[in-house]
Design brief:
about 55 residues, 2 strands, about 45% helix
Length: about 55
């Protein structure tokens, strides 16, 4: 799950999901990118770990 501090499209919704998942003990990966928006700068770190997990042997 990724979020950027400058995301003006969905604002803080991902952080709410992250907090809920943490509270109920659901394993997840959380990326918060300072000065990230709703684009590549915020998505790239998340996609890196996603692709690693998908192709894990």
């Amino acid at each position: 799950m990724s979020a950027g501090s400058n995301d003006t499209l969905i604002y803080s919704a991902p952080e709410g999901y992250h907090n809920t998942m943490t509270q109920v003990g659901t394993d997840h990966i959380w990326h918060y990118v300072q000065r990230g928006d709703h684009g590549g700068k915020t998505i790239r770190p998340h996609m890196y770990y996603f692709v690693r997990e998908v192709f894990k042997a």
